[in-house]
Amino acid sequence: GVYTPEARKLARLMVCGGVSQANVGKLLKTIAGGLGIRVDRVMSRRTVRRAIHEAGIAAEVQMAYEMEKSENVTISQDSTSNRNINYEAKHINMRVPDYKAGKTVPTATSKPKSRLVGVHSTLDHSSKGSVMSWEQTVTHHMARARTSPLGQRTGMKADLRLFYKWLKGIHGDH
Q: Which is it for strands 73-82 and 167-171: parallel, antiparallel or unpaired?
């Protein structure tokens, strides 16, 4: 069956709140019943997982779109290890459109925002490894955005070469 965007959003919020993916559907049905809304089916764990995955893809596309429209970005990262596994957290900072005001491109008065790019395990804490990790991540996000319906409709050109042109600053611990 097809679930509404609102139902998918509720499922994601429940998982973020600690509900297991396997229990989201039952909980949604119980809550709806308590509100007097009849729900004929239970959202499966697989559908919940897909809703989460789709939101992640949408976030990647949005981030690439915002980078292309901003044309000025700074990046930051920090690394740590836990039980001999290295982790790296990445952020990107840029001016983004005021979506609440209906804007689709940032202006001179747009406020800078920080976007979480991700937290990933890495092979090492070296500067070379960090650069390679950033290049892989940016290349992935840009390719995802260019091939998305939004990217195709708007003629998005974002790629690693343009990212380096837009990059105005780096903050890290190396």
A: parallel
Whether the predicted pLDDT of 1 surpasses 70: no
E strand or H helix at 117? strand 112-122
Q: In whole angstroms, what is the distance from residue 43 CA to residue 119 CA?
A: 28
Tell me: the pLDDT tens digits for 28-74?
999 999 999 988 889 999 999 999 999 999 999 999 999 999 889 99
What sign does the CA torsion over 144, 62, 12, 117 have?
A: positive
- CA-nearest of 104, 84, 89, 68 to 137 is 89
Q: Provide long-range contacts, Cβ within 8 A and 24+ apart, for 21-28.
A: 21/45, 21/48, 21/49, 21/52, 24/48
Point out which residues pair with 90 in neighbouring strands: 77, 118
Looking at residue 103, what DSSP letter applies?
-
Distance CA 96, CA 26 (A): 38
CA distance 76 to 12: 27
The model carries a pTM of 0.82
